[in-house]
Specification:
mainly alpha, Four Helix Bundle (Hemerythrin (Met), subunit A), two-stranded antiparallel sheet, two-stranded parallel ribbon, about 60% helix, globular
């Protein structure tokens, strides 16, 4: 895996020297990571040569837009929720396979791929939660809080990747694939029962789920931020007695 850097002035002309060092290490320890990796490699090896990683990234983003639109359309027909599940499956295919395809074909562009992939993730989250907030199954306030939680966690992960050189894909054995599966099952359950009874009151199922998910993400944010702060403090600890300054 190669990337490009230079000590020259910023600009296109500064991208001249190459060195063989990946910009970060990818750490993925979710429950399904092993099975998922083997499945993705199997599919990448059999994809037609005309399909490139950029095609898959675009497919994943369009699928997330379709999922958001299907949530929004459920205000008129609840059966569009089935389209949400199908769109989540297509999103998994595109979003998970793009990087694997580049690695299998030895066509990695680490900085470009990292940037485009995660900008697409952020845009996809906005489209998905925007559609969900416009649906009858989640209030706009809960959708907004969930989006803020997601964006804050994403920001912390990207900052930690830059500062520590480790990109953590999962937290407590839960990664993007597991979240898609939970969302898909929850969406199917909406067809049966979109409300839940708690303490003698009725609440939207997805309002409760979104609140729990937001709390979990804010908790993960605090834990990860504390862990990374401690690690960076130890790595860059000042000496007990700084060198004297000559006058």
């Amino acid at each position: 895996m190669t990337t490009t850097t230079s000590t020259a002035a910023p600009g296109v002309s500064g991208l001249s020297r190459t060195f063989t060092r990946p910009p970060h290490v990818r750490e993925h320890g979710s429950l399904l990571a092993g099975v998922e990796k083997r499945a993705l490699v199997w599919m990448a090896e059999r994809l037609p040569r005309w399909i490139h990683s950029d095609h898959l990234t675009a497919l994943g983003l369009m699928a997330m837009a379709a999922a958001g639109a299907a949530y929004w359309a459920s205000a008129w027909s609840r059966w569009t929720l089935l389209l949400v599940v199908a769109a989540l499956a297509v999103n998994w295919f595109g979003d998970s396979l793009d990087g694997t395809l580049a690695r299998v074909r030895d066509r990695q562009r680490p900085r470009y791929g990292f940037y485009v992939d995660h900008v697409s993730d952020i845009m996809g989250a906005l489209l998905l939660l925007g559609g969900l907030g416009l649906s009858p199954y989640m209030s706009a306030e809960v959708a907004l809080i969930l989006l803020v939680a997601y964006l804050m966690v994403s920001a912390e992960v990207y900052l930690a990747t830059h500062a520590r050189g480790v990109f953590r894909v999962s937290f407590l054995k839960v990664g993007p694939t597991e979240l898609r599966i939970l969302l898909a099952f929850g969406t199917l359950y909406l067809l049966r029962q979109p409300w839940i009874e708690l303490g003698g009151a009725s609440y939207r199922l997805f309002d409760v789920g979104g609140t729990v998910a937001s709390a979990g993400m804010f908790g993960a944010l605090l834990i990860s931020a504390a862990r990374n702060t401690v690690a960076l403090h130890r790595a860059e600890r000042h000496p007990a007695h700084p060198p004297s300054v000559q006058r």
